[in-house]
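Notebook p. 47: complex prediction with zinc ion.
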Amino acid sequence: MKNPTPQKAIITAAVSGAIHTPCMSPYLPLTPAQLVEDIMSVYEAGGAVAHLHVRKPENGQPVADQEIFREVAAEVKRRCDIVLCLTTGGSLGDSVENRGKVVSTLKPELASLNAGSINFALFHVVPKFEGQWKYDWEKQYLGGTEDFIFPNTFLTIRQFAELMGRNGTKPEFEIYDVGMINNLAYLIEAGHVQKPVYLQFVLGILGGIPATVENLVFLVQTARQQIGDFQWSVCAAGRAQFAMTTHALLMGGHARVGLEDNLYLSRGVLAKSSGEQVAKLKRIAGELGVETATPAEARKILGLKGLQQVGF
Ligand code: KMH
Ligand code: ZN
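Predicted complex, structure tokens below:
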């Protein structure tokens, strides 16, 4: 019997995030114009989805500012048809209420939905950047995470899922550890989350599951047992980025790169854009015989409502 045609892989790029700070790379996009430019680099390199956080233009501090989200999203929509996945993770320490606003105001096709609470730790990188800070807020923002829990209670997850349901926004569930699959399986069972779900396995955050191939296989297997059918993608912090995303492609999954997760293109070489990382992953996919999805194909695979239905 012939094997069925394998599904195309969706390459996502998370362009700026709320983890890296301006002193770490001159290429980290901070202003609306830089964010748009980086998203366009992703689109031109063959990425189908861009995951977006925004920052204060004057100092690069992560902020859930609805006007900046709108400015960036509208300009990207004017220029291309890439899928935008807006964050509800926000910046570290932001209120749950503020984090959710982006869904009600902009009604995106796709938005992140963090599937559990974790010790989201970045404090361990502080010694590496001592003496190099560019802005006052950076050291405290990172250092303060030694005593920080990223809160995503069952109530929050349920409310975010309902909010997204009302706005026609597909949740991209961020899974930082294996217990979060259990959280989601419960929420599906209880009728709060509808299948088919889309999972983003986020590996290698201090506080979450380490970025190893064994753990990736374990996560996918556990999700199959607990949830059944689903779409999944992988991203990994720092230097594990290309190893884990390559494995995801080999396993039939989707993959996320971008400067939110890793500032480098290869050892010691800073990526000048998220698009450079997308181009590298596209080359790897090509060598492996894995076809990658266009934005239109990604919409079909994920069952998104379409660009005409967004609120920006
Ligand atoms: N802001 C981080 C704490 C997301 O985009 O939803 C987590 C994050 C996930 O970036
Ligand atoms: Zn994010």
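Notes: Residues 14, 17, 51, 53, 87, 89, 112, 260 surround zinc ion (ligand 2) (CB under 6 Å). DSSP finds eleven helices and ten strands in the chain.
Next step: compare against the earlier run before touching the bench.
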